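Shapes recur. Our protein:

. . .
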Amino acid sequence: MNITEIEQLMQRGNVTPDEAVNSLVYLTGLYSYLSAQLTDLEAARPGIWLKMRDDTTTDKRADIIWDAGEMGQKMTRLKGELKRVDALIKTLKIVRRHLSDEWNNTPNYG
């Protein structure tokens, strides 16, 4: 399972309860992993940025150099990926809640 498969599953429109739960488990783990990577970059940024600032004339220029560099681009990608994963998690929670409500409201004839 990967994020693209989950997006395709959701686009299909008829997610089963098991698919919703399995997708949520995967996405929650992915969110945690990406968050840890972003935290590491954010922790490293001040020291690196200060060195960049020493070589420039303004804070703005140091920000531009950071953003254009490998670590700045990685930080931007991670933030975007976290938003993507968060949106999927929120939607799957709604789907799971809806499926659970449907199941709880189904008459039991057994």
In short: The radius of gyration is 21 Å. The chain is about 85% helix and 0% strand. Residues 25-100 form one domain.
